Amino acid sequence: xxxxxxxxxxxxxxxxxxxxxxxxxxxxxxxxxxxxxxxxxxxxxxxxxxxxxxxxxxxxxxxxxxxxxxxxxxxxxxxxxxxxxxxxxxxxxxxxxxxxxxxxxxxxxxxxxxxxxxxxxxxxxxxxxxxxxxxxxxxxxxxxxxxxxxxxxxxxxxxxxxxxxxxxxxxxxxxxxxxxxxxxxxxxxxxxxxxxxxxxxxxxxxxxxxxxxxxxxxxxxxxxxxxxxxxxxxxxxxxxxxxxxxxxxxxxxxxxxxxxxxxxxxxxxxxxxxxxxxxxxxxxxxxxxxxxxxxxxxxxxxxxxxxxxxxxxxxxxxxxxxxxxxxxxxxx
Length: 332
Hints:
Residues 1-58 form the HTH lysR-type domain. GO terms for molecular function: DNA binding; DNA-binding transcription factor activity. Keywords: DNA-binding, Transcription, Transcription regulation. Helix content is 45%, strand content 22%. The chain is of the alpha/beta class. The chain has three domains: 3-87, Winged helix-like DNA-binding domain superfamily/Winged helix DNA-binding domain (Arc Repressor Mutant, subunit A); 89-163 and 274-320, D-Maltodextrin-Binding Protein, domain 2 (3-Layer(aba) Sandwich); 166-273, D-Maltodextrin-Binding Protein, domain 2.
């Protein structure tokens, strides 16, 4: 007895004739007749009464029907469980992040997944903080990397990654008075920011909200009337051209610093910082692939922090990530 025979038997019972079963299965009628005859021979019982009107179950057939349904149900359930195990460990994981986070994490994250987790497909989307939050809420993402200003505990589960430092970013432009003024400095007090024309996002964005919090906290009003598109790369181009300064984490511009295109000064008194978190939607069951991706994200975050690309204090302990990834994390 095999699953094909069980399928042919159950469809024939359901349709009431071998001819109808053949049409349903889109196979030749003699093939079904042969398989049913083999099944009856193996069971040593006549399962169908055949007539010109079709077929009906014998008493033996009625008994066999109960067992056939149970066996088929068990086989289907076994297949489903196995498919869930396979899909949980593989498949696509959709990760959303802000451009500044994407600048530091995207490439090493892709490299890590391709090298050590080829069974997982990583699908990265980038957008403003409010868009990433909405994507997670509407189940368009499995993981969202965002800031504490955008956290909604009603639907988000959170996994802290790093408390990043904020910097004043100025273009290395010899024609810029701001550059010459800040050339020999490594830090700047928050109140001093009021001296400069800043390119700043609106309060709709998490960074705009953070800056507003510090303005209210310190009583220092900043100048942010310069035209700004809200696009990170466009803003950095304006900074490089000397059209204004920006407040950013190192994740957003470390690559430009390494190329001596921009200079950054750590904002102090008070120290300006914000918490970055990985978040998931509480209403969605996390697959094993998603859990694996969370561990990869933690490992890559620690690696980039150790490389000084993402400057700040890790919000995850080394012990929780040291054995999760082949990355050489280093001392944190």
